[in-house]
Amino acid sequence: MTWPDEAVADGTATAPAHPSRVALFEAVRADRTGPVATRLLQLAHADSPFVRREALDLLGSMARERPWPEAVNAAEARLSDPADEVRRRAACIFGRCGQPGPVLSALVELADPVVRTILARALGPAAAHLTDDDLASVRFLAHLETLRSAPPTRWRALDAALLHDAREAAHHLADAGQLWGQALYRLRREQDTYVLVARLLADPATRDIGAELAREACHGWRAAPTRLLPLLLRCYRQRPTPALDAAIVTASISEAARRTHGALLNEVHRAPSPRARRRPSAAPVYDNASAAALLAAKPVGITRLAHAPEIFAALLDAGPLSFRQAAQLYNLTFRHPGRSQAECAPLWLRHAGPSAGPRVLALMTPQLADYGFGEYYLAGLARLGAHARPALSAVTVLIDRRTRIPVNDSTRDAEMRLDEGLLAAALGTRRAILGRASPC
To answer: What are the E-state strand segments in 346-438?
Structure first.
């Protein structure tokens, strides 16, 4: 066996960052009519189902980088492959990279319900007219595509059609609840989503779809966990399922939901405790002399400095900053957004006096919803206390959001935790600005 046959057959060609995969991609990118590309296309028709599947995985990745009609043709030829996984890989490639007309024709002609569902999903809006298809999952996707652009007057009828097909559709569409939830979120149908979740959870046959929809709602709307957690817990008490478990774990990320339904949650489900925030290590203690010596060793144009609040606080406690120290603090405050700016802005206000307040607050308030540094800016406003009152409206806007702040993390639950962290920080900041004690 020669390369690339060997790399495909032993799986190294599909292993991320493996030298075989890198070499294969480089060879095909360099020449899609060359011997390596030609051989890879041939391997999609190999005797071994594993080799066919691996070859199609590679062809799909390459066709998504840049259009490759030969790869699409190879996938089309395997839509009726004897092996389930090969057919499904082929359907993914053909659906995503093929032209809508041939994809629709294949969907009508083929019998495999999973393959037909994959093709219908890949068609996107072009599948909207398939509402009379014999397969429930295809009808479900068609109604969902119709719903995305339908006027509000049609929503109720489309909801009824989706409810009717949901149970059967789930046999071939594993994430039906998630897809439904995404469509409802884009339409801003929060209250309707809660009603649909309750309908789905009430029927044991659609309960898992309801759990998926509830979980998607929790990822999108801040009020959803508090609203839906009791329903999820009641169903879980009757009959636990993995989908209900996942939805309860997601809903339990919400501090408001845990506070409101904590007793029921502890009674019915052992949801993991919210991840404790990593406490920062104790900062070194500086006096005027040690702080001055440290800054003297740093350039004037410094834009990042660990323990800046402790360093400059020690200097400001002892008296006015020197011209060089003030220049350093200025650069830390105004050069770049980020943690150093958030921590140093209140110090600049202390140094420059009340007249600098509007400029400092104008610097900080646009960053409050930043999921990377927003909590540091909120903590900075909290340190300013009543001096940050002009920024109170920006803090309140952050608190009063119904939808979660758009963030980017490894999982939807992790993104939800970031939003919950910003919400908790904003609530603490508002209390600090108004001079209120933290609730017990």
So the answer is: none
- CA distances 347 to 11, 245, 357, Å, are 57, 47, 11
Residue 160 CA to its chain's centroid (Å) = 29
Predicted confidence at residue 4, as pLDDT, reads: 87
73, 117, 119, 161, 306 from 108: Cα distances, Å: 18, 11, 10, 21, 63
Q: Could you count the other beta carbons within 10 Å of the beta carbon of residue 100? A: 14
Residue 126 burial (10 A CB sphere; 0-12, 13-18, 19+): middle
pLDDT at residue 380 in the model: 93
Q: How far apart are CA 133 and CA 155, in angstroms?
A: 20
Under-70 pLDDT residues of the chain:
1, 271-281, 437-440
pLDDT in tens, 14-38: 999 999 999 999 999 999 999 999 9
Question: What DSSP string describes 275-331?
Answer: PPPPPPPPPPP--HHHHHHHHHTS-TT----TTHHHHHHHHHHHSPPPHHHHHHHHH
189 burial via Cβ count (<10 Å: 0-12, 13-18, 19+):
middle
> Vertex 204, ends 203 and 210: CA angle to 5°?
70
Identify the pLDDT of residue 43. Answer: 95
> H or E stretch including 177?
helix 176-186
Phi-psi region of 362 (alpha: psi -120 to 50; beta: other; left: phi over 0): alpha
Cβ(172)–Cβ(139) below 8 Å: no
Dump pLDDT digits (tens) for 74-107.
999 999 999 999 999 999 999 999 999 999 999 9
Q: What is the pTM assigned to this prediction?
A: 0.87
Question: If you search the block for the tokens 């927003």, which residue do you land on?
Answer: 374
Q: Which two tokens stand for residue 229?
A: 């957690």
- The count of residues in the chain is 440
In this prediction, residue 374 carries a pLDDT of 94
**H or E element in which residue 414 lies:** helix 412-434
Q: What is the CA angle 401-217-148, rounded to 5?
A: 95
